[in-house]
Specification:
The complex is a heterodimer of chains A (about 270) and B (about 170). By secondary structure, chain A is an alpha+beta fold. Chain A is about 30% helix and about 30% strand. Among the domains of chain A are: about 110 residues, Thrombin, subunit H (Beta Barrel); about 80 residues, Rod shape-determining protein MreC, domain 2 (Thrombin, subunit H, Beta Barrel). Chain B is built from 7 helices and no strands. In chain B, α3 runs antiparallel to α4 and α6 runs antiparallel to α7.
Chain lengths: ~270, ~170
């Protein structure tokens, strides 16, 4: 007992150090997925207010740019309405119940905190569970993909950015339909890598890369970027560098897309996986 | 004594606000992010008890983690830096030792001493931080490059802040 006490007295600093590092590491290992850190969820409300202020100041300076983006998007949507409206004037359109047709539900949110300079980037939206957002919803910016929601509190959501080493996205080349897995290699924030495309496929620089609907998170056909470079690796697959369409340094307003039929699809697929 | 604590509290708050509102928004090319909040650990008095130093480092890191949404990374790195600080101070002690009741700042011990001190602590902190961030040893060299570049910027900004403090 006496020895133990002298030992503790002698090494008390080392012991405190180890305890504190232990706490830090337990946070680090349990928290990175964002799903189960109560501490982070509980306390982030405190820091939110400051972030919201800073974000307000930032967006104010970019109003012109934001206005332009929204205007282009509006034009696009108006065209879309025009196109759909014309379809409805056909005489013999099939009668379907719209309740069973809508698969995706869209919503908008503002980015209040963002980072691009880490290896595992996340950003925060100013909407949460109370506004109808939930985990696993897709986030797009200006009709190109930005990330996927990994955590929600009452009024805020954390999104795993595409610029995150843990992010995987099933995507395909629009011109030929071959799909592969897209991920970020942590080097350049404007580029990602598309792999698992077999080498017998013809690819050219400038081809559009878009999402597949396979994961039940992203709707089909949302743009990811364009092929900027490709090389043959030792295996049977290409290593394709994709120039991302989204500028992650300028995320202000984003769309959030929820899949209303995701649960159904997942449940059906479960026994076979 | 009370005066010093208040003064340090003020430095603490100012540095955290600077880091969160200003430096976290500086993003050069995806490689560089200066972390100047480590100056809080640097500026604590020389004779501070080690347990207090560690506790303050811990809470500094924890606050940064909360703001950046990174569970534990900054905490672990800052506690490590706090643990190393007494050894660094012993290693590079000035010829006639440390003055009683002094902060290890540039105005007291001069540029050259403070520069070496900063480099040592910032390198320890940034190395731990960036390797914890990727949490793997693939791309070892690229992470190392990020450590060096970010350290360069952090050190520059810390020295600048110290110059401004000294001039006051």
């Amino acid at each position: 007992m006496r020895n133990l006490l002298t030992f503790i007295a002698k090494y008390n600093n080392l012991i405190i150090f180890l305890i504190l590092e232990g706490i830090a590491f337990s946070l680090l290992t349990s928290g990175n997925s964002y799903h189960n850190t109560r501490i982070v969820k509980g306390t982030r409300g405190l820091t939110r207010r400051i972030e919201q202020r800073a974000s307000n100041a930032r967006t104010y300076f970019r109003l012109r740019e934001i206005g332009q983006t929204l205007a282009t998007e509006n034009t696009y949507l108006k065209n879309e309405i025009e196109r759909l409206g014309r379809n409805e004037t056909q005489f013999f359109s099939p009668l379907t119940d719209s309740v069973y047709q809508q698969q995706y539900i869209w919503s908008t949110a503002e980015v209040v905190n963002n980072s691009v300079n880490r290896q595992k980037n996340f950003f925060t939206l100013n909407k949460g569970v109370l506004q109808g957002l939930s985990v696993d919803m897709a986030v797009t910016s200006d009709r190109a993909i930005a990330g996927v929601i990994v955590g929600c509190s009452m009024n805020y959501s954390v999104v795993m950015s595409l610029l995150n080493l843990d992010f995987r996205l099933s995507s395909r080349i629009r011109s030929n339909g071959y799909f592969g897995s897209l991920s970020w290699d942590g080097i350049d924030i404007s580029q990602a890598v598309l792999s698992e495309i077999p080498q017998h496929v013809t690819i050219s620089v400038g081809d559009t890369v878009e999402t597949t609907g396979y994961s039940a998170v992203f709707p089909e056909g949302i743009m990811v970027g364009t092929v900027s470079d490709f090389e043959k690796t030792g295996s049977d697959f290409y290593k394709i560098t994709v120039l991302l369409k989204t500028d992650f340094k300028r995320l202000y307003y984003v769309n959030v897309i929820g899949n209303l039929q995701k649960a159904e699809q997942r449940e059906l697929e479960k026994p076979y996986q | 004594m009370i005066n010093r604590i208040l003064r340090f509290g003020l430095i603490f708050i100012i540095l955290i606000l600077l880091q969160v509102l200003l430096f976290n928004n500086i993003q050069f090319s995806g490689y560089v992010n200066p972390y100047i909040y480590i100056l809080i650990v640097l500026l604590l008095p020389v004779e501070i008890p080690a347990y207090l130093l560690l506790m303050i480092s811990f809470f500094t890191g924890l606050i940064m983690d909360l703001f950046m949404g990174t569970p534990g990374m900054h905490t672990a790195a800052t506690v490590l830096a706090g643990f190393f600080r007494p050894y660094a101070l012993r290693l590079i002690s000035p010829r006639d030792g440390y003055e009683a009741n002094s902060n290890p700042s540039m105005s007291v011990y001069g540029f050259k001493w403070f520069f070496i001190y900063t480099v040592v602590i910032v390198l320890v902190h940034h190395t731990a931080l960036f390797y914890l961030e990727v949490f793997r040893f693939t791309d070892f060299l690229r992470t190392f490059l990020r450590v060096l570049l970010s350290s360069l910027f952090s050190i520059t900004f810390i020295l600048l802040i110290e110059y401004i403090r000294k001039a006051k």
